[in-house]
């Protein structure tokens, strides 16, 4: 009975209901949409971070992450391979690398780079480099003198495909090792800093140059969707001796992790701020709806309705307003996210700025159930809470006072 | 003296004080938030720019054309003294210094890393950058110290060197010859920006020029101005007075050209902030629109009476609009005052966000200090004012359609 009464009550003044609904709908819409946009940005940042050679999990020799030098290589990677076989869920991909700091030289220029020795076949499935070669050719097994360089590095070195590039680094005997490579391919990455930093050769070529035998610097693992990096990492840790370290991307990219946590709390703050803006409207509308019906409440009371009943009635009206507003707002939010999910939002105009924050050039908004639930809960629970005030007001009129009111 | 309309409007407002106060509160809340957030953003930008400028870049560089892009050893300023003379005469410049840079292999006993070797003039550098104050261990370079070097914290860790250890530097001189030298670690610096602390060492400029066969040339003349506002003027003054130099010719670059990523990052943050604020304002406007609308709907009878005794619709609209204006102004002023107070409190005491690892990478260390300015104080509230007044216009349209007879009978 309360519900049908409340339902009719809110349509007694359709214009007022419509205006407050618009406020709620816009509020909820922007919560959903901007929440999705921020998630999209975060997913993009994580994706970039993971694809730029990090992966979900990495296995190293203990201490490599803090001090990535050749002495901290895994001398017995077979153990790690075995552990991977046991621990990884089906659908996982992994690749092994040599990774050292090196200096690249040609006749005119030199610069510090990270030399990455890769297994071309497995690497292509794990990191961005497999699809990133824009000129020339990707590495293949047995290319002992081929090297892939970023487009930005090539420009900086004023060189081109087929030209020589000399790499220098420290080998396992602490001597300076150098080897001449021929630029076999040029890759493009989302960020110019990546293009300047990484050069790729085959794993055997790097191992031979640095006299490291079959040692490896890192193993990078890409998990299938839905698998928890932390859980798999814990399992790997239990299978491996103490001389290995197993780290998830959150540990490998602490800055990104910190940024994500900051964004997480920002989303909630943003929800509350929008709600407060909208909450004033809800209270005011409900309050007015109550005051213009003082006589009516007095009548109901003199007919024997308890104060609790009046509170229930007013709350039921807010409940309907909120439910309708939430339904429309969510629908609108989801539709706009869906509409943008095909092309995303192009940030090319601000590419360097996006790069500054570690993002790519296109952001595709993404709805997370967690945000959707948070947004709806915030609006619904707080919405009902603030309606308690006008409801309590309505319940406090005494029948005589109310019936005397005009 | 208030006109009769103004007095009526004011009294009408307080016929329902609760509603008026709630509406004023909604507007004040929006204004407070906008003032604080904008000040906060501006404050963090200023910190970001200042840190980036002070740690290394400076406000202005004079360097050979294309040096910024190519970082080529051979693109030098041949006569730094001539540039120094121009800079000394430039109005708005606080301090300047000369630097030379070379990429080299740095070896300790154990390890070898590639890093940027920067030749600095210790005395002048101390006035331009924060280098002297971020030396956390050991001491800053003394003028004339030919064998000393300052090393970034992360590079020192990677190389495994401590104060007093020796570093072998191997690089290529300006003329293509081999440059080799042994330097002693005098100090270790930490700026908080990992990239900077990982990739550079600093040595005396004189010794740098001798070892890298610079023949008295440098790569950059770096200047800081008294404030961001002086940069443009100083830049054009220097550009007009640059000493002539052929192949390569010289150019003046300001911090925006030196760090395009920083500027665009700020733009992006500002744009996304503005989108958030606009949405917030729209939500608030709709919240308020309802109050305005209601205050008219519930007074239909009253308006009917007023019209019957001769009030024109224009006058009633004016009355209603004045009520809305009064409410809005009250809210905006209250919001601005509260916003300014809150901002001022944090401007003095700082705000600890507890995410310093992240912030440090953008050059913000420690607490954040919002920066109250005329723009941050007025931009948001002005927009709220405009939007609210637009919202106030809509309900007045109804008054024009009122028919006195119908209105009087409306209950």
Structure notes:
The complex is a heterodimer of chains A (406) and B (411). With 406 residues, chain A is an alpha+beta fold. Chain A folds into 2 domains: 2-49 and 256-403, no CATH class; 90-229, Beta Barrel (Cathepsin D, subunit A, domain 1). Chain A has helices at residues 2-10, 14-54, 77-87, 120-126, 129-132, 151-156, 192-197, 203-209, 229-239, 249-252, 254-291, 294-302, 307-340, 351-356, 369-396, 399-404, and strands spanning 57-61, 93-105, 110-118, 133-136, 146-150, 164-170, 176-187, 198-202, 218-222, 244-248, 345-346, 362-363. In chain A, the strands form 2 sheets. Chain A has a 6-stranded mixed β-barrel with strand order 2-3-8-5-7-6. In chain A, strands 11-12 form a two-stranded antiparallel ribbon. By secondary structure, chain B is an alpha+beta fold. Chain B has 2 domains: 4-52 and 263-409, no CATH class; 66-248, no CATH class. Chain B has 16 helices and 10 strands. In chain B, helix 2 runs antiparallel to helix 11 (260-297) and helix 2 (17-57) crosses helix 13. Chain B is elongated, with a radius of gyration of 32 Å. Classes of the chains: A alpha+beta (406), B alpha+beta (411).
Rounded radius of gyration of chain A (Å) = 31 Å
Query: How many domains would you count in the coordinates of chain A?
Result: 2
- Overall average residue pLDDT of chain A: 86
- Beta-strand portion of chain B reads 15-25%
By DSSP, the count of extended strands of chain A is 12
Average of pLDDT of chain B: 86
Task: Show unreliable segments of chain B.
Answer: none
Shape of chain A: elongated
User: What would you call the structural class of chain A?
Assistant: alpha+beta
Assembly state (oligomeric): heterodimer
Measured by DSSP, the beta-strand proportion of chain A falls in 15-25%
Which structural class should the secondary elements of chain B be placed in? alpha+beta
Number of self-contained structural domains of chain B: 2
Q: Largest interface, counted with CB-CB under 8 A?
A: A-B, 60 and 59 residues
Number of discrete helical segments of chain A: 16
Distance between the termini of chain B: 35 Å
3D shape of chain B:
elongated
Across the major sheet of chain A, the strand order is 2-3-8-5-7-6
Percentage of residues assigned to helices of chain B: 55-70%
The secondary-structure element order of chain A is HHEHEEHHEEHEEHEHEHEHHHHEHEHH
The unreliable regions of chain A are: none
């Amino acid at each position: 009975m309360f519900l049908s009464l409340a339902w009719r009550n809110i349509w007694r003044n359709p214009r007022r209901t419509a205006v407050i609904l618009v406020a709620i709908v816009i509020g909820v819409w922007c919560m959903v949409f901007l929440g999705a946009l921020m998630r999209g940005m975060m997913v993009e940042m994580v994706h970039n971070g993971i694809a730029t050679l990090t992966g979900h999990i990495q296995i190293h020799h203990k201490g490599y992450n803090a001090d990535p030098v050749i002495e901290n290589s895994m001398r017995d990677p077979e153990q790690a391979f075995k552990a991977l076989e046991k621990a990884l869920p089906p659908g996982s991909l992994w690749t092994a690398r040599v990774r050292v700091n090196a200096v690249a030289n040609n006749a005119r220029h030199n610069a510090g780079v990270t030399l990455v020795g890769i297994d071309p076949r497995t690497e292509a499935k794990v990191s961005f480099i497999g699809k990133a070669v824009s000129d020339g050719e990707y590495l293949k097994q047995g290319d002992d003198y081929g090297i892939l360089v970023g487009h930005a590095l090539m420009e900086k070195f004023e060189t081109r495909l087929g030209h020589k590039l000399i790499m220098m680094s420290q080998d396992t005997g602490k001597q300076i090792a150098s080897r001449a490579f021929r630029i076999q391919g040029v890759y493009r990455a989302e960020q110019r800093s990546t293009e300047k930093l990484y050069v790729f050769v085959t794993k055997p070529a790097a191992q031979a140059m640095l006299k490291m035998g079959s040692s490896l610097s890192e193993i990078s693992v890409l998990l299938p969707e839905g698998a928890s990096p932390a859980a798999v990492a814990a399992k790997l840790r239990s299978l491996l001796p103490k001389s290995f370290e197993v780290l998830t991307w959150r540990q490998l990219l602490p800055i990104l992790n910190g940024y994500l946590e900051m964004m997480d709390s920002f989303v909630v703050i943003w929800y509350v701020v929008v709600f407060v803006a909208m909450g004033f409207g809800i209270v005011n509308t409900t309050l007015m709806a109550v005051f213009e019906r003082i006589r009516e409440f007095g009548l109901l009371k003199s007919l024997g309705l308890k104060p609790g009943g009046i509170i229930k009635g007013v709350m039921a009206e807010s409940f309907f307003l909120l439910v309708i507003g939430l339904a429309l707002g969510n629908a609108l939010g989801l539709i706009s996210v869906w509409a943008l999910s095909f092309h995303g939002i192009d940030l090319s105009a601000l590419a360097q700025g996006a790069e500054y924050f570690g993002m790519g050039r296109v952001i595709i908004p993404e709805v997370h159930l967690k945000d959707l639930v948070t947004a709806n809960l915030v609006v619904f629970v707080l919405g009902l809470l603030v309606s308690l005030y006008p409801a309590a007001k309505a319940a406090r009129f005494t029948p005589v006072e109310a019936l005397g009111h005009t | 003296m208030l006109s009769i309309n103004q007095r009526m409007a004011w009294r009408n407002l307080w016929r329902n004080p609760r509603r008026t106060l709630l509406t004023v509160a909604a507007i004040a809340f929006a204004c407070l938030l906008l003032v604080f957030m904008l000040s906060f953003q501006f404050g963090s930008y200023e910190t970001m720019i200042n840190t980036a400028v002070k740690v290394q870049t400076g406000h202005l560089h004079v360097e050979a054309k294309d040096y910024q892009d190519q970082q080529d050893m051979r693109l030098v300023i041949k006569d730094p003294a001539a540039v120094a003379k121009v800079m000394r005469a430039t109005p708005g410049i606080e301090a300047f210094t000369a630097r030379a840079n070379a990429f080299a292999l740095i070896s300790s006993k154990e390890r070898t890393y590639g890093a940027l070797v920067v030749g600095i003039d210790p005395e002048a550098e101390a006035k331009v950058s924060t280098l002297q104050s971020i030396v956390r261990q050991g001491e800053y370079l003394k003028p004339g110290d030919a064998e000393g070097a300052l090393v970034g914290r992360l590079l020192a860790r990677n190389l495994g060197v401590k104060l007093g250890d020796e570093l072998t530097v191997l690089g290529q001189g300006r003329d293509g010859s081999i440059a080799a030298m042994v330097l002693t670690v005098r100090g270790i610096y930490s700026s908080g920006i990992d990239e900077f602390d990982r990739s550079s060492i600093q040595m005396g400029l004189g010794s740098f020029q001798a070892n890298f066969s610079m023949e008295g040339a440098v790569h950059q003349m770096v200047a800081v101005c008294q404030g961001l506002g002086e940069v443009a003027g100083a830049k054009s003054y220097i550009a007009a007075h640059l000493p002539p130099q052929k192949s390569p010719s010289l150019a003046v670059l300001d911090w925006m050209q030196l760090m395009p990523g920083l500027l665009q990052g700020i733009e992006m943050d500002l744009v996304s902030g503005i989108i958030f604020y606009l949405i917030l304002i729209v939500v608030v406007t709709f919240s308020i629109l309802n109050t305005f609308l209601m205050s008219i709907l519930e007074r239909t009878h009253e308006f009917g009476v007023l019209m019957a005794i001769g009030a024109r619709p224009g006058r009633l609209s004016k009355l209603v609009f004045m009520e809305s204006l009064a409410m809005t102004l009250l809210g905006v002023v209250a919001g601005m005052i509260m916003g300014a107070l809150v901002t001022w409190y944090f401007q003095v005491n700082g705000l600890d966000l507890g995410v310093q690892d992240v912030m440090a990478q953008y050059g913000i260390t420690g607490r954040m200090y919002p920066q109250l300015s005329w723009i941050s104080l007025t931009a948001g509230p002005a927009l709220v004012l405009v939007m609210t007044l637009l919202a106030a216009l809509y309900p007045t349209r109804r008054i024009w359609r009122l028919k006195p007879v119908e209105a009087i009978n409306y209950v």
